[in-house]
Amino acid sequence: MKLVAYVGNDEGNWGQITAIMKKMQWDKIILVKNRDVEGFPDEGCEVISVKNELPISELAESIKEKLKGKLSGEFEVALSIASGSGKEHMAMISGLLSIPVGIKIVAFTKEGVNFLI
Fold first, then answer.
1. I want to staple 8 with a disulfide (CB 3.0 to 4.6 A). Which of 54, 56, 83, 92 is the partner?
2. Do 36 and 3 form a contact (C-beta atoms < 8 A)?
3. Contact assessment for residue 2 and residue 27, using Cβ atoms and an 8 Å cutoff
4. What letter would DSSP give residue 63?
C-alpha cells in the first residue's frame, strides 16, 4: 500500500508522520508539502510541493492534478493528515477522492500504526 501524507508548517506534528513512515513497510511514500516547509526528513520519498495559500478549491485541484498520475490504478491509499490545517486536510481528502482513490486514515499511537478507517 502507498502512504500519502500532508506535511504542514507545524513541526510539532512531524514526528507522527516520521513514525508512520518508519514503522511500516510501504510500497511508496508520497509527501504533499507546503512549498515553504523545510527540514522535514523526506529521503526516499516522492515530494509534491503545493501553495497552501491558494483558495481551498484551487488547492484541492492542484493536489488532485499532482497526485493523479502517481496513483493511477490504485484502489486505496493510507493517508496521514496529522500535520497541516483543516483547510489543507479538506483539500487533501477532496483531491484524493476526486482522482478517485479510496483512503484509509492512518495514525501512530501507543499501540503502533493504526488504520482508523
1. 83
2. no
3. yes
4. H
CATH number for region 2-115: 3.40.50.2000
Cα distances (Å, whole numbers) of residue 7 to 4, 21, 44, 51, 101:
10, 12, 15, 12, 20
Q: Show the cell assigned to 86.
A: 483543516
Q: Is the dihedral of CA 13, 93, 57, 71 positive or negative?
A: positive
pLDDT tens-digit profile of 2-23?
999 999 999 999 999 999 999 9
Residue position matching grid coordinates 488504520: 115
Please state, in angstroms and rounded to a whole number, the distance separating the CA atoms of residues 60 and 88. Answer: 8
The phi, psi pair for 53, rounded to 5°, reads -80, -5
